[in-house]
Amino acid sequence: MMLPELLRKRAEKLLFGFCRQVADDQYQPRHVRYRIIDQQINLVEVRRYANNPKEHEEFPVAQIRYIPELNQWTLHHYDNERWKLYLNVTPTLELGRLLSVIRQDPMRCFWPE
């Protein structure tokens, strides 16, 4: 099932701004891409190889899932094996709140380096 069109457009606007913010960070600039697949958003960090800048590798940052029955978003982090629910933030109606948690990363789950 796909995200409702209005919700998807609002999410894309927030995600575009988030990706721009992390790219412009003066201390730790990162190239982040997002993909919306059905009712989930996958955020990945793209790192180019120094010896071959045409090639790159993607590292999972976060996964945000939409629960239509509750009209809420949940946040998940990757632990090198699978996606796990991030327990330090409750499901929310506000996608921007979850993006803020990812950016700040108080538990070092999203930006391990």
Characterize the structure shown.
The structure is a single chain. This protein has 113 residues and is an alpha+beta fold. The protein has one domain. 26% of the residues lie in helices and 37% in strands. The protein has two helices and five strands, in the order αβββββα. Strands 1-2-3-4-5 form a five-stranded antiparallel sheet. Strand 4 and strand 5 form a beta hairpin. It is globular, with a radius of gyration of 14 Å. The N and C termini lie far apart (35 Å). The mean pLDDT is 93. It holds the Pfam family DUF3024. InterPro entries: DUF3024. It comes from Malonomonas rubra DSM 5091. This is DUF3024 domain-containing protein.
Low-confidence blocks of residues: none
The structural class is alpha+beta
- Overall mean pLDDT score? 93
Q: Give the strand content.
A: 35-45%
Radius of gyration: 14 Å
Query: Which strand order does the major sheet show?
Result: 1-2-3-4-5
Organism: Malonomonas rubra DSM 5091
Protein name: DUF3024 domain-containing protein
Task: Give a brief description.
With 113 residues, the chain is an alpha+beta fold. It has helices at 5-23, 95-104, and strands at 32-37, 40-49, 52-67, 72-78, 83-85.
Essential attributes:
113 residues, alpha+beta, 5-stranded antiparallel beta sheet, 2 helices, 5 strands, DUF3024, DUF3024 domain-containing protein
